[in-house]
Every structure is written in structure tokens, then in C-alpha cells.
């Protein structure tokens, strides 16, 4: 709300539509930060200490992934905001697919 109050003070003659557009623009940025925080709180971020039998699995083969190191991936939200995730990367020993575990 502080950001909106500041914006409103700078735009005292804004129409309701302009206020709504600004609120929406601020909300997509907040939403992106929340999504990033939620994704980085996942156990998939760092599974180096997880026993092999509990590693994330390949969505195609269902084989436990082998840890391949860390990588960073930037995705875009529905609102067009970038979300950057730094997390562990795995490779499927059966089919060779490499991926960020989804959860």
C-alpha cells in the first residue's frame, strides 16, 4: 500500500482507471516476487543431501534423477515479469533428459 500511496501523491488527478492500472502493474511485480520466493522454498532447490531413492524423478521415465550441479533459469510469469530460479539440475540416467525438478 505504501507504493500506491506514494504513486497517488505524485498523481493527484489520476482517474479511477489510471489508479486501477497502476495497482495492477504493482501487483504483477509483487506476485512475481512471491512466486520466486515460493519456488525457491521448494525442496527441489537443493537436494544434495537427499538419499538417491528420494531424488526427484524424470517425468518421462520415472527414474530418480542424478544430480548434475547448479544452474539458473529465468522464467516469465503470466503478467510478463521475470522470475529467476537458481537451483539444482538433474539428469535422468535412463533417457538422458536434463531438467530442473518441478518440486
Protein model, in words:
This protein is α+β, with helices and mostly antiparallel strands. It has one domain (2-99). Helices cover 33% and strands 22% of the residues. It has two helices and three strands; from the N terminus they run ααβββ. The chain has a three-stranded antiparallel beta sheet, with helices on one face. Strand 1 and strand 2 form a beta hairpin. Helix 1 runs antiparallel to helix 2. The longest helix is centred in the first third of the chain and has 25 residues, at 16-40. It starts with a helix and ends with a strand. The model has no long low-confidence stretch (mean pLDDT 85).
Brief overview:
This protein is an alpha+beta fold. 33% of the residues lie in helices and 22% in strands. It has one domain (2-99).
Write the layout of secondary structure elements.
Elements (H helix, E strand, L loop, with lengths): L1 H9 L5 H25 L25 E11 L5 E10 L6 E2 L4
Antiparallel strand pairs: 1-2, 2-3
Helix pairs in contact: 1-2
